[in-house]
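> run fold Related to glycoside hydrolase family 23 protein-Laccaria bicolor
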Amino acid sequence: MRLFCLLIISCSIWGASASVNYEDAPFEGATRNMHLTGPPSAPVQRHEELKKRQASGSNQVISVSPTQGCPPIDAQPLTSETTGPNGSIFFLNCGISTKDKTRGQWRPPNVRVSDLVIGADFSSAAALSKGIFKPCAPYFDAFVNASAAIGIPPALMAAFAMQESTCNPGATGSGGTAGLLQLSPDKCTHDNCYDPYTNIRIGGAYLQQLLQENQSIVLAVGRWNGWFSGMTYSDATAARNTDCYSQRNLDYLHQYFNGWLQGVDSYGQYGVNPRLGFYFNLDVCGHGSSGGSGAGRLAPKLLICLLALSVSYLIGL
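> ok
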């Protein structure tokens, strides 16, 4: 019985360690198994400051003409699960059906960089260190220089880095995507894309190319994640049964425009705000909700513990 009791205690500790694990939390961008630097200090206080700052401006929502055939813009000063200053997820995902998965094609709204509302404080490396962009602070100059070269706010480049890798320069994703911005191998043929400065420079040039082809920043951000005009729900989720993580994240636009660009944690990792999104189509890939819930890791551990407990009980140990 002594071994039986020890097994009960061990299983309790083991299960608890699986339930919250910030060191192994998966993400919904192109990469998985990234290592967090840990939650920024006093995140709740900063979230309250963000709410006050957002609420203080009556016009801190995007102002663009409605797109014909699209849902209402429904922009709100405060970010929530499905909307925020740059419009609702249904506006950004215009045309993608939420009910009939075989119909409905994406029609990216015509939103330019100059139309965007950006609430994140990107004024200095010190400012980054105090907010959700803390992992990006060491590369502040690189983001500023690359963004200046193409005439966009630096927060746009850093938001990609947070969405794709949580600003982890050593990240490797599906299909060999590399570094901070998860650049595909074809963009890194002659360069070391794990070098953060090289990665940001090449990523900036790619974003510039996308914006030159079409000035819609919504289309450009979508294309970064493999979206295309006319994409359907079925197109986005086609890889779920073959290479699950190669799916296109249907919550990507909302997480980018209303999450990271507002200084809000899109993945709800630290319990300050809910996870942003509606579709969560990558949840079927085996990690459940992001933010270190550990549900996928917990189930097999419990099964092993139950088997061990059953055997020890039957033999009377």
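Residues 295-314 form the longest helix (20 residues).
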